[in-house]
Task: structure prediction
Amino acid sequence: MSKESTVSRCDFIHSSVLIAAALAASGSVWASTPTPPFAEEAAPIRLGLASYTFRNFSRAQMIGFMKQLNVLALNAKDVKDHLPMDPQQEAAALANYAAAGIKLHAAGTIYFTKDEDADIRSKFEYCKRAGIGVIVAGDPASETLQRIEKFVKEYDIRIAIHNHGPEDKLWRSPLDVLKAVKDMDPRIGCCIDVGHTVRAGTDVVQVIHEAGPRLLNVHMKDLTNFESKDSQVAVGDGVIPMRKMFEALIATKYQGFVDLEYEIHPDDPMPGVIASFAYMRGVLEGMGFASKG
Result:
């Protein structure tokens, strides 16, 4: 894959660094200097956050970070206290999110380890209670898909199977997912994890076109080396072609969210998260989708 324009990439990266530096210089816990407001609804690409990014932080801390980022769309995971499976605890979490103006559009990654109605139903109920329309599913066995399809039809909740790259024995690439679900209910599709996809040797831009309406969620990240999981960096600092990906998502009329899943520096993710959103927003603005702020 080719790199994007060096000048434009440097401009966006420079902007990201300036924002991060300004926040760091404030001397507070990121909360004193909000990033400039950006209305994702102004662009055809909707940006969100995968809560796994803040897996070492509490729900209250994550809500504070999201307000600073001006990101109010969340792909929640049962990690820390972000979205507990227990109904009572889940209700408390949902009340906190509603009070903060945060909307949950997906949950995951959720693992379907048992080919049993009771286990599968519990996870659909979990998402139904939260009003979540997409379950990002990790490694469901092929023989379990028929049973999962039954619940997709019953609950009208979509299943986006997440690929995990070369290490994944079942779903290394979105292409593996698309092949397995091509004759199933259209509400069953894939979650393209961008980093894992390129590590699997799959052209991420091409697979967006191939997935079409079967693409239900995107986990965004960036790498400096397509063969190294450990080469993850802030979005814009790597070699994944972000603009071409956005162009493909727009061309295919993608209706879901692009959720940042920043997996490095788990104890201090905000500098990289700020830089990542600044870069993605800069790319969209460079494509003519200016922010309202």
